[in-house]
Each structure stands twice: as structure tokens, then as C-alpha cells.
Design goal:
Elements (H helix, E strand, L loop, with lengths): L19 E3 L9 E3 L3 E2 L8 E3 L7 E2 L2 E3 L1 E10 L5 E5 L3 E3 L4 E8 L2 E7 L5 E9 L8 E3 L4 E6 L4 E10 L19
Parallel strand pairs: 7-15
Antiparallel strand pairs: 1-4, 2-6, 3-5, 7-10, 8-9, 8-11, 11-14, 12-15, 13-14
Length: 180
């Protein structure tokens, strides 16, 4: 149905048809989701019954899918961190990522599992959305974010390796500074 050969479809396509039964559909397009179509006159896209002189309008609404990126930043060492929720997997390198593409707009979460000898310092999400900003909870180790159509959300979890201190003491037996 690409009328001008530019790879895009027109917003409206009219066809004059003989009264009778028809079916319309739309092919899948990578990176987009469709509502399957809605028709007026109590028709459905798969079962249209056109009466003489009648106009039936079917509308297909497409929504661009989004992308979620969970990024891991480690201070003081490296380890493997596990994530559960809608974006799940393991990250074992500093600035490593988990990426989930082609997500339908909606609300998602990612939860970092507790890791011995590491402290979760911050969770920061950059989603560019002003209507529903992301929320984070250090106590539950959770980022919750709303993906809008076509949006790319990046949430960075930053952990610091727990460190101790080694204290060295010198004890002299005999005269200080004398070696035997």
C-alpha cells in the first residue's frame, strides 16, 4: 500500500468496494505494536459487512516500543550482580549493561539482589519523562519506571565494595632498634 515508494504508508486509504463482506489487517512492523484495529458501524477488521452506500472506517493505532537499559557501576572492585524483575540477568563488569528492547509502553521494575561485601549507594534513572518520573528505593533495591512510546530509559545501580583497614604494629623484644 506504499503509494509513493518512500517506505511509509499513507495515514488514510480509501477503497470503493461492492457491498458485501470484507476483512482488513495490517502487517507487523518491527519496533511497533498495534491495537489490532477498531471499526465503526459495529464492525471488526476481520468481519466487515458493507451495505450499499455505507462507509465503514477502520482505524489501526500503532505505538512505538521503547528500550530499557540497566547499568552497573562498581567502586573498589568488580563482581557479578544479579537482577530480577522485568529487566533480569547478571552484570559482571563495571559499566556493564542489561538491555531490553522493543518493550510495550508501560510500567516496569528492576531489582538488584543483595551482594555480600558490597553496599548499594544509589539508583539513578534517566528517562526523560516529565509526566511520570522513575522511582527508586535503596531499601528494596528497586527501580520502577514508566516507558513511554519510543522512550529509552537508563537506570544506573552504583555499589561500593565494603573495605576494612589493616593496622600494622611493631613490637620490640629487647632493646628497640636492635636486631638479632
Amino acid at each position: 500500500l506504499d503509494d509513493d515508494g518512500d517506505g511509509t504508508l499513507p495515514n488514510t486509504r480509501n477503497s470503493t468496494v461492492i457491498a458485501g463482506k470484507y476483512s482488513v489487517s495490517e502487517g507487523a512492523l518491527t519496533g511497533w505494536t498495534s491495537d489490532g484495529g477498531v471499526c465503526d458501524q459495529a464492525e471488526t477488521p476481520s468481519d466487515i459487512d458493507v451495505a450499499p452506500g455505507e462507509t465503514v472506517t477502520c482505524t489501526f493505532t500503532n505505538t512505538k516500543k521503547g528500550t530499557i537499559i540497566v547499568k552497573k557501576h562498581m567502586v573498589g572492585g568488580t563482581s557479578s550482580f544479579d537482577f530480577t524483575g522485568d529487566v533480569a540477568g547478571a552484570i559482571s563488569t563495571d559499566n556493564g549493561t542489561l538491555t531490553t528492547s522493543n518493550v510495550i509502553p508501560g510500567t516496569y521494575t528492576s531489582v538488584e539482589s543483595t551482594k555480600a561485601d558490597w553496599t548499594l549507594n544509589s539508583i539513578v534513572c534517566d528517562d526523560g519523562s516529565s509526566d511520570t518520573p522513575s522511582t527508586t528505593n535503596l531499601g528494596t533495591r528497586t527501580a520502577t519506571f514508566k516507558v513511554d512510546p519510543g522512550e529509552i530509559i537508563t537506570c544506573t545501580f552504583t555499589n561500593t565494595r565494603d573495605q576494612g583497614t589493616v593496622e600494622l604494629k611493631k613490637v620490640w623484644s629487647g632493646t628497640p632498634g636492635q636486631t638479632t
